[in-house]
Protein backbone atom coordinates (compact mmCIF):
# COMPACT_ATOMS: atom_id res chain seq x y z
CA UNK A 1 0.00 0.00 0.00
CA UNK A 2 1.23 3.48 -0.91
CA UNK A 3 1.56 5.36 2.38
CA UNK A 4 1.34 8.67 0.52
CA UNK A 5 -2.24 8.13 -0.54
CA UNK A 6 -4.82 10.58 0.73
CA UNK A 7 -8.11 8.77 1.18
CA UNK A 8 -11.55 10.31 1.01
CA UNK A 9 -12.05 9.69 4.70
CA UNK A 10 -10.45 8.28 7.81
CA UNK A 11 -12.44 6.73 10.65
CA UNK A 12 -12.76 8.48 13.98
CA UNK A 13 -11.11 6.14 16.50
CA UNK A 14 -10.90 6.49 20.28
CA UNK A 15 -7.83 6.13 22.43
CA UNK A 16 -6.98 2.43 22.39
CA UNK A 17 -6.32 2.26 26.14
CA UNK A 18 -9.72 3.76 26.88
CA UNK A 19 -11.33 1.24 24.56
CA UNK A 20 -9.41 -1.51 26.30
CA UNK A 21 -10.89 -0.47 29.63
CA UNK A 22 -14.40 -0.85 28.27
CA UNK A 23 -13.53 -4.12 26.59
CA UNK A 24 -12.27 -5.40 29.93
CA UNK A 25 -15.63 -4.55 31.48
CA UNK A 26 -17.42 -6.38 28.70
CA UNK A 27 -15.17 -9.43 29.08
CA UNK A 28 -15.74 -9.49 32.83
CA UNK A 29 -19.50 -9.10 32.52
CA UNK A 30 -19.70 -11.83 29.85
CA UNK A 31 -22.59 -9.91 28.33
CA UNK A 32 -21.63 -9.10 24.76
CA UNK A 33 -24.88 -8.40 22.93
CA UNK A 34 -28.71 -8.34 23.23
CA UNK A 35 -29.60 -5.10 24.95
CA UNK A 36 -26.50 -4.87 27.12
CA UNK A 37 -25.36 -2.06 29.37
CA UNK A 38 -23.34 -0.16 26.74
CA UNK A 39 -26.11 -0.54 24.18
CA UNK A 40 -28.56 1.12 26.57
CA UNK A 41 -26.03 3.81 27.48
CA UNK A 42 -25.32 4.62 23.86
CA UNK A 43 -29.01 4.89 22.96
CA UNK A 44 -29.49 7.35 25.79
CA UNK A 45 -26.30 9.31 25.02
CA UNK A 46 -27.23 9.59 21.34
CA UNK A 47 -30.74 10.81 22.18
CA UNK A 48 -29.17 13.54 24.32
CA UNK A 49 -26.52 14.47 21.78
CA UNK A 50 -28.80 14.43 18.76
CA UNK A 51 -31.80 16.06 20.44
CA UNK A 52 -34.25 13.25 19.71
CA UNK A 53 -36.52 11.35 22.05
CA UNK A 54 -36.67 7.80 20.70
CA UNK A 55 -33.72 6.13 19.01
CA UNK A 56 -33.07 2.47 18.41
CA UNK A 57 -29.57 1.22 17.63
CA UNK A 58 -28.97 -1.07 14.64
CA UNK A 59 -26.07 -3.05 13.23
CA UNK A 60 -25.74 -0.81 10.17
CA UNK A 61 -27.51 1.98 8.29
CA UNK A 62 -29.31 -0.24 5.80
CA UNK A 63 -31.38 -2.34 8.20
CA UNK A 64 -33.10 0.68 9.82
CA UNK A 65 -34.30 1.67 6.34
CA UNK A 66 -35.70 -1.81 5.75
CA UNK A 67 -37.17 -1.93 9.25
CA UNK A 68 -38.76 1.54 9.05
CA UNK A 69 -40.69 0.43 5.98
CA UNK A 70 -41.73 -2.78 7.75
CA UNK A 71 -42.73 -0.96 10.92
CA UNK A 72 -45.05 1.37 9.01
CA UNK A 73 -46.38 -1.37 6.68
CA UNK A 74 -45.33 0.63 3.63
CA UNK A 75 -46.33 -1.01 0.34
CA UNK A 76 -46.93 -0.09 -3.31
CA UNK A 77 -44.81 2.79 -4.57
CA UNK A 78 -42.42 5.07 -2.71
CA UNK A 79 -41.01 8.30 -4.10
CA UNK A 80 -37.27 8.54 -3.65
CA UNK A 81 -34.06 10.02 -4.99
CA UNK A 82 -31.72 8.38 -7.49
CA UNK A 83 -28.84 10.44 -6.07
CA UNK A 84 -27.81 8.43 -3.03
CA UNK A 85 -25.95 5.33 -1.95
CA UNK A 86 -27.63 2.20 -3.34
CA UNK A 87 -28.84 1.15 0.12
CA UNK A 88 -31.64 3.75 0.01
CA UNK A 89 -33.36 2.15 -2.96
CA UNK A 90 -32.37 -1.41 -2.09
CA UNK A 91 -34.33 -1.04 1.16
CA UNK A 92 -37.48 -0.47 -0.91
CA UNK A 93 -36.74 -3.42 -3.17
CA UNK A 94 -36.20 -5.73 -0.18
CA UNK A 95 -39.69 -4.80 0.97
CA UNK A 96 -41.26 -5.50 -2.43
CA UNK A 97 -41.89 -1.78 -2.92
CA UNK A 98 -41.56 -0.09 -6.30
CA UNK A 99 -39.17 2.87 -6.17
CA UNK A 100 -40.32 5.94 -8.09
CA UNK A 101 -37.38 8.22 -8.81
CA UNK A 102 -37.82 11.96 -8.68
CA UNK A 103 -35.19 14.51 -9.67
CA UNK A 104 -33.11 16.49 -7.20
CA UNK A 105 -32.64 20.14 -6.31
CA UNK A 106 -29.09 21.23 -7.21
CA UNK A 107 -28.96 23.61 -4.25
CA UNK A 108 -28.82 20.73 -1.73
CA UNK A 109 -28.81 17.50 -3.83
CA UNK A 110 -32.01 16.40 -2.04
CA UNK A 111 -35.38 15.57 -3.58
CA UNK A 112 -36.87 18.53 -5.46
CA UNK A 113 -40.24 19.27 -3.82
CA UNK A 114 -41.45 20.89 -7.06
CA UNK A 115 -41.27 17.52 -8.79
CA UNK A 116 -42.78 15.24 -6.17
CA UNK A 117 -46.50 15.78 -6.76
CA UNK A 118 -46.33 14.82 -10.44
CA UNK A 119 -44.93 11.40 -9.43
CA UNK A 120 -47.72 10.56 -6.96
CA UNK A 121 -50.14 7.82 -8.06
CA UNK A 122 -52.94 6.01 -6.20
CA UNK A 123 -50.32 3.40 -5.21
CA UNK A 124 -47.95 5.90 -3.58
CA UNK A 125 -47.69 5.38 0.16
CA UNK A 126 -44.56 7.22 1.22
CA UNK A 127 -41.70 9.55 0.36
CA UNK A 128 -38.11 8.55 1.16
CA UNK A 129 -35.77 11.53 0.76
CA UNK A 130 -32.08 11.68 1.69
CA UNK A 131 -30.37 14.57 3.50
CA UNK A 132 -27.56 14.19 0.99
CA UNK A 133 -24.08 15.12 2.30
CA UNK A 134 -25.91 16.23 5.46
CA UNK A 135 -27.62 19.09 3.59
CA UNK A 136 -31.12 19.36 5.01
CA UNK A 137 -33.94 18.61 2.56
CA UNK A 138 -36.78 21.08 2.29
CA UNK A 139 -38.58 19.29 5.10
CA UNK A 140 -41.45 21.79 5.33
CA UNK A 141 -42.49 21.47 1.71
CA UNK A 142 -42.02 17.70 1.70
CA UNK A 143 -44.21 17.40 4.80
CA UNK A 144 -46.88 19.65 3.25
CA UNK A 145 -47.05 17.34 0.21
CA UNK A 146 -47.12 14.24 2.43
CA UNK A 147 -49.96 15.70 4.51
CA UNK A 148 -51.93 16.66 1.41
CA UNK A 149 -51.79 13.12 0.01
CA UNK A 150 -51.70 11.15 3.28
CA UNK A 151 -48.18 9.83 2.73
CA UNK A 152 -45.55 8.75 5.26
CA UNK A 153 -42.08 10.33 5.17
CA UNK A 154 -38.94 8.36 6.02
CA UNK A 155 -35.73 10.35 5.89
CA UNK A 156 -32.52 8.56 5.08
CA UNK A 157 -30.36 10.69 7.37
CA UNK A 158 -27.26 8.50 7.02
CA UNK A 159 -25.15 11.62 6.39
CA UNK A 160 -26.88 13.94 8.81
CA UNK A 161 -25.35 13.13 12.20
CA UNK A 162 -25.71 16.20 14.42
CA UNK A 163 -27.21 18.40 11.71
CA UNK A 164 -29.58 21.03 13.05
CA UNK A 165 -31.81 23.66 11.51
CA UNK A 166 -32.46 26.71 13.67
CA UNK A 167 -31.27 24.79 16.72
CA UNK A 168 -33.58 21.82 16.07
CA UNK A 169 -32.37 18.36 15.06
CA UNK A 170 -33.05 17.52 11.43
CA UNK A 171 -33.89 14.02 12.69
CA UNK A 172 -37.18 15.16 14.17
CA UNK A 173 -38.75 15.66 10.74
CA UNK A 174 -40.91 13.13 8.94
CA UNK A 175 -42.31 9.97 10.53
CA UNK A 176 -38.93 8.32 10.98
CA UNK A 177 -35.26 9.00 10.22
CA UNK A 178 -32.47 6.51 9.74
CA UNK A 179 -28.75 6.90 10.41
CA UNK A 180 -25.55 5.11 9.47
CA UNK A 181 -22.65 4.79 11.87
CA UNK A 182 -20.39 3.14 9.30
CA UNK A 183 -16.63 3.64 9.59
CA UNK A 184 -16.77 6.30 6.87
CA UNK A 185 -19.27 8.50 8.68
CA UNK A 186 -18.69 11.52 10.94
CA UNK A 187 -19.64 9.38 13.94
CA UNK A 188 -19.00 5.65 13.71
CA UNK A 189 -19.34 2.39 15.58
CA UNK A 190 -17.33 0.56 12.84
CA UNK A 191 -20.61 -0.78 11.45
CA UNK A 192 -23.80 0.55 12.94
CA UNK A 193 -26.88 2.66 12.53
CA UNK A 194 -30.06 3.86 14.16
CA UNK A 195 -33.75 4.40 13.61
CA UNK A 196 -35.30 7.54 15.10
CA UNK A 197 -39.03 7.42 15.78
CA UNK A 198 -41.60 9.73 17.32
CA UNK A 199 -43.13 7.82 20.24
CA UNK A 200 -42.48 5.11 22.80
CA UNK A 201 -44.97 2.67 21.27
CA UNK A 202 -43.23 2.80 17.88
CA UNK A 203 -39.81 2.43 19.50
CA UNK A 204 -41.09 -0.70 21.25
CA UNK A 205 -42.29 -2.10 17.93
CA UNK A 206 -38.98 -1.29 16.25
CA UNK A 207 -37.10 -2.95 19.10
CA UNK A 208 -39.20 -6.09 18.60
CA UNK A 209 -38.57 -6.00 14.87
CA UNK A 210 -34.80 -5.79 15.26
CA UNK A 211 -34.90 -8.80 17.61
CA UNK A 212 -36.73 -11.33 15.40
CA UNK A 213 -40.11 -9.95 16.58
CA UNK A 214 -39.66 -11.28 20.13
CA UNK A 215 -41.86 -9.48 22.68
CA UNK A 216 -40.80 -11.79 25.51
CA UNK A 217 -39.19 -15.16 25.95
CA UNK A 218 -41.83 -17.08 24.06
CA UNK A 219 -43.90 -14.54 22.16
CA UNK A 220 -43.15 -13.43 18.60
CA UNK A 221 -45.37 -10.54 17.51
CA UNK A 222 -44.00 -9.85 14.02
CA UNK A 223 -41.68 -11.32 11.40
CA UNK A 224 -38.62 -9.47 12.69
CA UNK A 225 -35.00 -9.56 11.72
CA UNK A 226 -31.75 -9.59 13.71
CA UNK A 227 -30.22 -6.15 13.73
CA UNK A 228 -29.07 -5.62 17.30
CA UNK A 229 -25.92 -3.66 17.99
CA UNK A 230 -23.47 -5.57 20.18
CA UNK A 231 -21.65 -4.33 23.27
CA UNK A 232 -18.27 -3.92 21.59
CA UNK A 233 -19.57 -1.53 18.95
CA UNK A 234 -21.72 0.26 21.53
CA UNK A 235 -18.61 0.85 23.67
CA UNK A 236 -16.75 2.16 20.62
CA UNK A 237 -19.68 4.50 19.99
CA UNK A 238 -19.67 5.83 23.54
CA UNK A 239 -16.00 6.76 23.24
CA UNK A 240 -16.36 8.25 19.76
CA UNK A 241 -19.28 10.36 20.88
CA UNK A 242 -16.99 12.12 23.35
CA UNK A 243 -14.74 13.34 20.53
CA UNK A 244 -17.19 13.89 17.71
CA UNK A 245 -17.58 17.65 18.28
CA UNK A 246 -13.84 18.11 18.01
CA UNK A 247 -13.82 16.04 14.81
CA UNK A 248 -16.63 18.16 13.33
CA UNK A 249 -14.71 21.33 14.20
CA UNK A 250 -11.64 19.96 12.40
CA UNK A 251 -13.79 19.10 9.38
CA UNK A 252 -15.14 22.65 9.44
CA UNK A 253 -11.59 24.00 9.24
CA UNK A 254 -10.97 21.77 6.22
CA UNK A 255 -14.15 23.06 4.58
CA UNK A 256 -13.07 26.68 5.17
CA UNK A 257 -9.68 26.08 3.55
CA UNK A 258 -11.22 24.29 0.56
CA UNK A 259 -13.77 27.05 0.07
CA UNK A 260 -11.19 29.82 0.26
CA UNK A 261 -8.97 28.11 -2.28
CA UNK A 262 -11.74 27.11 -4.68
CA UNK A 263 -13.96 30.20 -4.48
CA UNK A 264 -12.52 31.83 -7.61
CA UNK A 265 -11.86 28.72 -9.65
CA UNK A 266 -14.03 29.01 -12.72
CA UNK A 267 -16.05 25.86 -13.40
CA UNK A 268 -15.87 24.45 -9.85
CA UNK A 269 -18.97 24.71 -7.68
CA UNK A 270 -19.33 23.68 -4.04
CA UNK A 271 -21.74 24.18 -1.14
CA UNK A 272 -21.47 27.00 1.34
CA UNK A 273 -23.03 26.79 4.79
CA UNK A 274 -26.76 27.42 4.75
CA UNK A 275 -28.16 30.06 7.09
CA UNK A 276 -29.42 28.64 10.38
CA UNK A 277 -27.93 25.20 9.73
CA UNK A 278 -25.41 23.42 11.95
CA UNK A 279 -23.55 21.40 9.35
CA UNK A 280 -21.43 18.33 10.09
CA UNK A 281 -19.05 18.59 7.07
CA UNK A 282 -19.45 14.89 6.41
CA UNK A 283 -18.49 15.30 2.75
CA UNK A 284 -16.97 18.04 0.61
CA UNK A 285 -18.42 17.56 -2.87
CA UNK A 286 -17.21 19.73 -5.74
CA UNK A 287 -19.03 19.89 -9.06
CA UNK A 288 -16.93 20.22 -12.19
CA UNK A 289 -18.38 22.11 -15.13
CA UNK A 290 -16.09 20.77 -17.87
CA UNK A 291 -16.79 23.58 -20.32
CA UNK A 292 -15.71 26.30 -17.91
CA UNK A 293 -13.10 24.38 -15.91
CA UNK A 294 -11.39 23.08 -19.03
CA UNK A 295 -11.26 19.48 -17.87
CA UNK A 296 -14.01 16.91 -17.37
CA UNK A 297 -14.86 15.54 -13.96
CA UNK A 298 -13.32 12.20 -14.86
CA UNK A 299 -10.15 13.82 -16.22
CA UNK A 300 -9.72 15.60 -12.89
CA UNK A 301 -10.75 12.53 -10.87
CA UNK A 302 -8.20 10.26 -12.57
CA UNK A 303 -5.49 12.92 -12.48
CA UNK A 304 -6.00 13.12 -8.71
CA UNK A 305 -6.07 9.35 -8.42
CA UNK A 306 -2.78 8.98 -10.30
CA UNK A 307 -1.24 11.36 -7.79
CA UNK A 308 -2.58 9.34 -4.85
CA UNK A 309 -5.47 11.66 -3.98
CA UNK A 310 -8.44 9.36 -3.73
CA UNK A 311 -11.59 11.43 -3.85
CA UNK A 312 -14.80 9.53 -4.59
CA UNK A 313 -17.56 10.12 -7.10
CA UNK A 314 -20.46 9.95 -4.61
CA UNK A 315 -23.03 9.49 -6.14
CA UNK A 316 -22.04 8.26 -9.58
CA UNK A 317 -23.48 6.25 -11.23
CA UNK A 318 -27.04 7.14 -10.26
CA UNK A 319 -28.95 4.33 -8.55
CA UNK A 320 -31.50 4.54 -11.35
CA UNK A 321 -28.87 3.35 -13.84
CA UNK A 322 -28.12 0.06 -12.06
CA UNK A 323 -29.50 -3.06 -13.73
CA UNK A 324 -32.15 -3.72 -11.06
CA UNK A 325 -33.72 -0.30 -11.53
CA UNK A 326 -32.93 0.98 -15.00
CA UNK A 327 -36.06 -0.57 -16.54
CA UNK A 328 -38.37 1.48 -14.33
CA UNK A 329 -40.16 4.29 -16.18
CA UNK A 330 -39.01 6.83 -13.57
CA UNK A 331 -35.37 5.78 -14.09
CA UNK A 332 -35.00 7.41 -17.50
CA UNK A 333 -32.38 10.18 -17.69
CA UNK A 334 -35.05 12.44 -19.25
CA UNK A 335 -36.95 12.20 -15.95
CA UNK A 336 -33.81 12.95 -13.96
CA UNK A 337 -31.86 15.65 -15.83
CA UNK A 338 -30.42 17.40 -12.77
CA UNK A 339 -29.37 14.22 -10.99
CA UNK A 340 -27.86 12.92 -14.24
CA UNK A 341 -25.82 16.08 -14.74
CA UNK A 342 -24.69 16.29 -11.13
CA UNK A 343 -23.67 12.63 -11.00
CA UNK A 344 -21.37 13.41 -13.94
CA UNK A 345 -19.90 16.49 -12.27
CA UNK A 346 -19.28 15.40 -8.69
CA UNK A 347 -16.08 14.54 -6.85
CA UNK A 348 -16.13 14.29 -3.06
CA UNK A 349 -12.75 15.60 -1.95
CA UNK A 350 -10.95 14.00 0.98
CA UNK A 351 -12.68 15.25 4.12
CA UNK A 352 -11.89 14.10 7.62
CA UNK A 353 -10.55 15.13 11.00
CA UNK A 354 -6.99 13.93 10.28
CA UNK A 355 -6.41 15.87 7.06
CA UNK A 356 -3.24 17.93 7.45
CA UNK A 357 -2.37 21.31 5.91
CA UNK A 358 0.14 19.51 3.67
CA UNK A 359 -2.55 17.06 2.54
CA UNK A 360 -4.85 19.93 1.64
CA UNK A 361 -2.09 21.75 -0.22
CA UNK A 362 -1.44 18.62 -2.26
CA UNK A 363 -5.12 18.19 -3.06
CA UNK A 364 -5.69 21.82 -3.93
CA UNK A 365 -2.60 22.01 -6.09
CA UNK A 366 -4.11 19.34 -8.31
CA UNK A 367 -7.36 21.29 -8.69
CA UNK A 368 -6.23 24.91 -8.60
CA UNK A 369 -2.63 24.61 -9.60
CA UNK A 370 -1.47 26.31 -6.39
CA UNK A 371 -1.53 25.49 -2.69
N1 LIG B 1 -27.97 5.62 3.05
C1 LIG B 1 -26.99 6.44 2.62
C2 LIG B 1 -27.37 7.77 2.08
C3 LIG B 1 -25.65 6.06 2.71
O1 LIG B 1 -24.68 6.88 2.25
C4 LIG B 1 -25.33 4.80 3.23
C5 LIG B 1 -23.96 4.35 3.30
C6 LIG B 1 -26.39 3.98 3.69
C7 LIG B 1 -27.70 4.42 3.58
C8 LIG B 1 -26.16 2.61 4.26
O2 LIG B 1 -25.47 2.66 5.51
P1 LIG B 1 -24.56 1.40 5.94
O3 LIG B 1 -25.43 0.14 5.83
O4 LIG B 1 -23.35 1.37 5.07
O5 LIG B 1 -24.24 1.73 7.38
C9 LIG B 1 -19.17 3.72 1.78
C10 LIG B 1 -19.80 3.10 3.00
O6 LIG B 1 -19.57 1.70 3.09
C11 LIG B 1 -21.26 3.36 3.14
O7 LIG B 1 -21.57 3.21 4.51
C12 LIG B 1 -21.62 4.78 2.74
N2 LIG B 1 -23.04 5.01 2.76
C13 LIG B 1 -21.09 5.07 1.35
C14 LIG B 1 -21.43 6.48 0.90
O8 LIG B 1 -19.69 4.96 1.39
P2 LIG B 1 -17.82 2.63 -0.16
O9 LIG B 1 -18.08 1.43 -0.99
O10 LIG B 1 -17.47 3.88 -0.85
O11 LIG B 1 -16.75 2.33 0.98
P3 LIG B 1 -15.20 2.04 0.88
O12 LIG B 1 -14.92 0.77 1.56
O13 LIG B 1 -14.73 2.20 -0.51
O14 LIG B 1 -14.59 3.21 1.78
C15 LIG B 1 -14.48 4.54 1.35
C16 LIG B 1 -13.17 5.10 1.84
O15 LIG B 1 -13.17 5.18 3.24
C17 LIG B 1 -11.95 4.28 1.47
O16 LIG B 1 -11.33 4.86 0.37
C18 LIG B 1 -11.03 4.39 2.66
C19 LIG B 1 -11.88 4.86 3.78
N3 LIG B 1 -12.05 3.84 4.82
C20 LIG B 1 -13.04 2.92 4.69
C21 LIG B 1 -13.22 1.96 5.66
C22 LIG B 1 -14.32 0.94 5.53
C23 LIG B 1 -11.19 3.80 5.89
O17 LIG B 1 -10.27 4.64 5.96
N4 LIG B 1 -11.38 2.88 6.84
C24 LIG B 1 -12.36 1.95 6.79
O18 LIG B 1 -12.51 1.12 7.72
O19 LIG B 1 -19.15 2.83 0.71
Please outline what is shown here:
By secondary structure, this protein is α/β, with parallel strands linked by helices. It has 11 helices and 15 strands. It is 35% helix and 15% strand.
Structure overview:
The protein contains 11 helices and 15 strands. It is an alpha/beta fold. The protein is globular. Ligand T4K binds at residues 7-11, 60-62, 84-85, 87-88, 130, 156, 158-159, 180, 182-184, 193, 310, 312, 314.
Any key phrases for this structure?
single chain; 371 residues; alpha/beta; seven-stranded mixed sheet; 11 helices; binds ligand T4K
Give the distinct bound molecules: ligand T4K
Distance between the termini: 26 Å
- The rounded Rg comes to 21 Å
Number of helices: 11
Strands ordered across the widest β-sheet: 2-10-9-6-5-3-4
Q: Pick out the low-confidence regions.
A: none
Q: How many individual β-strands?
A: 15
Per DSSP, what share of the residues sits in E-state strands of 2 or more residues? 5-15%
Q: What is the H-and-E element order?
A: EHHEHEHEEHEEEEEHHEEEHHEHEH
Average pLDDT figure: 97
Give the class from helix and strand content and strand pairing. alpha/beta
- Shape descriptor reads globular
How much helix is in the residues?
25-40%
Amino acid sequence: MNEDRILVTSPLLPDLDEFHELLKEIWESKWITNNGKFHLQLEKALCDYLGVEYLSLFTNGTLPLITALQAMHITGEVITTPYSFVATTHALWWNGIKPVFVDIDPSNCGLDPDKIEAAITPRTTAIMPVHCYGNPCDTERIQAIADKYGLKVIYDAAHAFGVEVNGESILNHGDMSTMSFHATKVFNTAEGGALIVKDAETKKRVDYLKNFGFAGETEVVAPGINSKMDEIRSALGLLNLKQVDEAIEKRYQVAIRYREALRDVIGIRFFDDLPGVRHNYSYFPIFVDAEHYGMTRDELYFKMKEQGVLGRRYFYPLISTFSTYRGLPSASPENLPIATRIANEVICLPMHHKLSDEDMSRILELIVGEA
